[in-house]
């Protein structure tokens, strides 16, 4: 099992004045501790479960680019980009640039999006869910077109929601054939079908429903003539080791539970991550204990 760290709460000691130093320290220590990747929440307002609109929420891809400059090996991904908030070509360009600047460490985390309040507050369109699923599929199709060949597939793209006269993409991503695509969500009829058709990884909610969701994904893979084993099974979680590591065994047990249901990679929110010690504890005691799961 591989572990990643997710940054989705920025209620840190010292406030925004210390964000740069804190994020650089988190990236450095997470890399040294053996985390596989860092995921950054992609919202423009803080999510209600993490404090709501009045809490701090730095922009995702600026933060990932800063992490790229302060790390050398760790993977970098959005958790995840809703398709309604950026034009697909601009989003693919951001991921491509992150991949180039990081030396091939970017992942394309994408989903149909949610959190309607932030979009209304900032004037960002928020189409109905049915349309957002259509937009999601077209976004992934555009990404694959822009990441094809040495320059992108430059033939026009004509979709229901997006039309591109020339999907040129320079510089191309360093990751070949493209940065891994992770589609988030566990909807059985649409999301998991899109995972089977296009994605390199899924991102599921943790819980006893995981085996059933993976069973649905397997059936979609059979329909799409896709190798189920090629798809990385990930989920988001919380890595709470306590104030001084007293919850380490509990966390290891939770990770074994997830592994037993078929999860291969867990990307966790770490309480008090800015204190750094929790990352060090996970690196020394948790990551080695679950490496062979």
For this entry, give a set of tags.
single chain, 293 residues, alpha/beta, TIM Barrel, eight-stranded parallel beta barrel, two-stranded antiparallel sheet, 9 helices, 11 strands, 39% helix
CATH topology (level 3) name: TIM Barrel
Question: What is the string of helix and strand elements?
Answer: EHEHEEHEHHEEEHEHEHEH
Rg over CA atoms: 19 Å
CATH C-level category: Alpha Beta
What does this structure look like?
This protein is an alpha/beta fold and 293 residues long. The chain has one domain (2-290): TIM Barrel, CATH 3.20.20.30. It has nine helices and eleven strands. It has helices spanning 19-33, 60-69, 88-101, 116-122, 129-146, 191-198, 210-224, 248-260, 277-290, and strands spanning 2-7, 37-41, 75-79, 81-82, 106-111, 157-158, 163-164, 181-184, 201-204, 232-238, 265-269. An eight-stranded parallel beta barrel has the order 1-2-3-5-8-9-10-11, surrounded by seven helices. A two-stranded antiparallel sheet has the order 6-7. β9 (201-204), α7 and β10 form a beta-alpha-beta unit. α2 (60-69) runs parallel beside α3, α6 packs across α7 (210-224) and α8 (248-260) crosses α9 (277-290). The longest helix has 18 residues, at 129-146. The mean pLDDT is 97.
Outline:
Helices cover 39% and strands 16% of the residues. The protein is built from nine helices and eleven strands.
Give the topology:
Layout: E1 2-7, H1 19-33, E2 37-41, H2 60-69, E3 75-79, E4 81-82, H3 88-101, E5 106-111, H4 116-122, H5 129-146, E6 157-158, E7 163-164, E8 181-184, H6 191-198, E9 201-204, H7 210-224, E10 232-238, H8 248-260, E11 265-269, H9 277-290
Parallel strand pairs: 1-2, 1-11, 2-3, 3-5, 4-5, 5-8, 8-9, 9-10, 10-11
Antiparallel strand pairs: 6-7
């Amino acid at each position: 099992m591989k572990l990643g760290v997710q940054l989705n709460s920025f209620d840190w000691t010292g406030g925004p004045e210390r964000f740069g130093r804190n994020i650089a320290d988190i990236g450095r220590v997470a890399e040294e501790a053996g985390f596989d990747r860092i995921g950054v929440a992609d919202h423009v307002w803080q999510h209600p479960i993490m404090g709501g609109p009045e809490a701090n929420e730095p922009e995702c891809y600026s933060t990932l680019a800063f992490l790229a400059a302060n790390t050398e090996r760790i993977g970098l991904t959005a958790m995840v980009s809703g398709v309604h908030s950026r034009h697909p070509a601009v989003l693919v360009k951001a991921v491509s640039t992150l991949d180039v600047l990081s030396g091939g460490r970017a992942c394309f985390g994408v989903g149909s999006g949610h959190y309607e309040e932030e979009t209304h507050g900032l004037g960002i369109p928020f189409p109905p869910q049915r349309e957002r699923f259509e937009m999601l599929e077209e976004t992934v199709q555009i990404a694959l077109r822009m990441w094809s060949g040495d320059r992108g597939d430059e033939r026009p793209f004509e979709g229901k929601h997006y039309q591109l006269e020339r999907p040129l993409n320079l510089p191309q991503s360093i990751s070949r054939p493209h940065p891994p695509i992770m589609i988030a969500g566990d909807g059985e009829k649409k999301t998991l079908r899109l995972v089977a058709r296009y994605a390199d990884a899924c991102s599921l909610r943790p819980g006893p429903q995981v085996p059933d969701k993976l069973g649905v994904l397997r059936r979609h893979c059979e329909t799409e003539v896709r190798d189920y084993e090629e798809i990385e099974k990930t989920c988001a979680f919380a890595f709470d080791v306590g104030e001084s590591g007293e919850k380490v065994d509990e966390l290891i047990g939770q990770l074994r539970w997830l592994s037993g249901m078929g999860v291969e990679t867990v990307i966790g929110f770490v309480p008090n991550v800015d204190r750094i010690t929790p990352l060090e504890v996970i690196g020394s005691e948790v990551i080695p204990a679950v490496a062979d799961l």
